């Protein structure tokens, strides 16, 4: 199976590359931008074109949101012309006001923000004009590298002694970029083999948690690991923010359909964070040893 992935530096693109390197049944081509040339698509004829999410559309500049939406629509037109399946990953932030119950796939977001509504129109157009699509809604992505990699940003701030501010009244499902990459390739392999299960799916980590609790847990786990390595680092603090005093905003995705259709189980975010922190600490230790050897 051949995949064309856009936005080479995105944390999800890097995770897809790592996952493909571990497999013998998947070949990736990764483009730096969001607008692949039609001639390239014709030459490659990938089995799917994958577009990573604009991870934080609520805080992104409106011009950036519009540019992303327009690029996705151009990709859809090109994919339709060449009969190439389109995979568009989108942020859970499109559910701007959340819901009290876990959000099912058939629930189309209805945000109030003009920029977010522009993304909704893009989704509506894809559903209306090109059936061979997967719209994959994701929780907040975290990873150790790449753009929009929440965890690496948290670690850098903590190690620099900076303050981390996060909402204590926004409930969400942090989502491992590595877990999404594994799931996406598995889903596309089934599509490649004739599943024809197109439509919208939710992929997110298990265990809904507030943004503040997630950030605090990362800080605690990092401190524990550094102490175990004999390092004393004055980590930055986490500060709770309260924006929804009357009722917490719950942005929790129901991922039942992806399990029923593709057999994809969601990975617990705590385990994924722990695994990534172990990798981070090993890399830090290797860098430290290499530095000591160079000074000898």
TrEMBL record:
Transmembrane segment boundaries: none
EC number: 1.1.1.133
Pfam families: RmlD_sub_bind
Domain called RmlD-like substrate binding: residue spans: 63-278
Keyword flag Membrane: no
Keyword field contains Oxidoreductase: yes
InterPro entries: NAD(P)-bd_dom_sf, RmlD-like-bd
GO molecular function: dTDP-4-dehydrorhamnose reductase activity
Matching SUPFAM superfamilies: NAD(P)-binding Rossmann-fold domains
Assigned keywords, A-Z: Oxidoreductase
Top-level taxon: Bacteria
Protein name stated in the entry: dTDP-4-dehydrorhamnose reductase
Organism: Halomonas fontilapidosi
């Amino acid at each position: 199976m051949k995949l064309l992935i856009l936005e080479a530096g995105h944390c999800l693109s890097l995770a897809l590359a790592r996952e493909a390197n571990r497999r013998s049944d998947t070949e990736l081509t990764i483009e730096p931008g969001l607008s692949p040339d039609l001639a390239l698509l014709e030459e490659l004829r990938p089995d799917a074109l994958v577009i990573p999410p604009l991870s934080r559309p609520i805080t992104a500049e409106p011009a950036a949101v519009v540019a992303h939406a327009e690029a996705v629509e151009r990709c859809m037109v090109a994919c339709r012309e060449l009969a190439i399946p389109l995979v568009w990953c989108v942020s859970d932030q499109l559910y701007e006001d959340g819901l009290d119950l876990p959000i099912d796939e058939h629930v189309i977001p209805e945000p109030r923000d003009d920029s977010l509504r522009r993304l909704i129109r893009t989704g509506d157009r894809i559903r209306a004009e090109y059936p061979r699509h997967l719209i994959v809604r994701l929780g907040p992505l975290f990873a150790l590298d790449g753009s929009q990699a929440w965890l690496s940003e948290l670690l850098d701030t903590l190690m620099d002694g900076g303050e981390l501010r996060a909402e204590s009244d926004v409930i969400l499902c942090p989502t491992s970029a590595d877990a999404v990459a594994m799931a996406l390739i598995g889903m596309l392999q089934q599509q490649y083999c004739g599943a024809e299960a197109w439509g919208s799916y939710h992929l997110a980590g298990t265990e809904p948690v507030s943004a503040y609790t997630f950030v605090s847990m990362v800080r605690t786990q990092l401190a524990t690991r550094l102490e175990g390595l004999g390092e004393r680092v004055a980590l930055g603090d986490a500060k709770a923010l309260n924006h929804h005093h009357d009722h917490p905003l719950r942005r929790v995705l129901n991922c039942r359909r992806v399990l029923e259709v593709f057999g994809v189980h969601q990975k617990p975010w705590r385990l994924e964070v722990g695994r990534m922190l172990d990798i981070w600490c090993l890399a830090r230790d290797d860098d430290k040893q290499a530095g000591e050897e160079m000074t000898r």
